[in-house]
Amino acid sequence: MNFGFTEEQELLRKTARDFLSERASSARVREVMEGPQTHDAALWTRLAELGWTGLTLPESHGGAGLSLIELCIVLEELGRALAPVPFLPTAIAATAIAELGSAAQQAQWLPEIAAGRCIASIAIAEERGRDEPAAIALRATPNGEGWCLDGRKLFVPDPQAADLFVVVARTGGEAAQGLGLFVVPAATPGLRVEPLRGMDLLRPLGQVAFESVAVPAANLLADEVDAWPAIAGVLDLARVMISAEMVGGADKCLEDSVKHAAERVQFGKPIGVHQAIKHKCADMLFQLESARSLTYYAAWAARAEPEEAPLMAAMAKAYASDAYRHVSAENIQIHGGVGFTWEYDCHLYFKRAKSDEAWLGDGILNRERVAALLPV
Prior knowledge:
Elements: H1 7-23, H2 26-34, H3 41-50, H4 68-81, H5 87-100, H6 103-114, E1 120-123, E2 139-142, E3 146-157, E4 164-170, E5 179-185, E6 191-196, E7 205-216, E8 220-221, H7 228-263, E9 265-266, E10 269-270, H8 275-304, H9 309-335, H10 346-358, H11 363-373
Parallel strand pairs: 1-4
Antiparallel strand pairs: 2-3, 3-7, 4-5, 5-8, 6-7, 9-10
């Protein structure tokens, strides 16, 4: 078995890194973060022109038809740059439609997403903040011609930029029974988006309120009786995508730490000559490469070993969450006093690490999931 990347995949990585170093520099990222816009619209347009918005979508719907591995390569580079675009939530929502939608549903929405004309997001968590069946309270009631949605979703990523929401709602029953997945355009009457104040200023969060929102029956993905097993499969893919973004951010933190340790001179010597700094960097490298290996194995297993995929997705998310948090915190420590200042980017990566860690379960929750999935 070849555990390395192909020439085409390495070329994709290099192309993505070169492009983002030019179009998503630290100065540009800060300009967007401190400005009135929620994302870099010009950068989003360029990503669409490069075909990234349809990377894994079927060629019949305008996509490139590539695998989750290629998507993870791009997500890793976007995570390195902290690119201010709603790429990750759009990719997760598009995956839900591609995996669970009918041919007609895919034909309706996927070409728009692949072309970059439609930004999407996924709305799952509510007051409990958990992404699990028992925590879903938003109600979907049959109304004859379709469904009526009432309730609210919290911590929805990039909601102000979204043209489309993929929403988990309760169609009846308890726990896993009676959950449905709906596609709801942002312009639907009764749907209201309210921004929430979050830690990560580069990934806006919001509350999406549904007040008697009428949704056609054609907008229901999967099974209305018990769609949770299908939804859980999509969330496993999402965990791998989030892990890839975390790997990219951790990689940049390590790179910046090593660079600073070589350039910062105290008492006539670079601080990198001290064992305390060397050991920190070595530990950061170990955690980074372990997270990367788990993430790309999980991306491979998603198609090659579907029975193993849920376990590997949980393992990748658990380890990458802890690794990114640790590496980004150590990056601040190695930078010393300036690491806490606004002018340096250390805090931006630490905030993204905390944001990504909470999304679809932190290390503790995903280790619990690993324990439940392991064969007895």
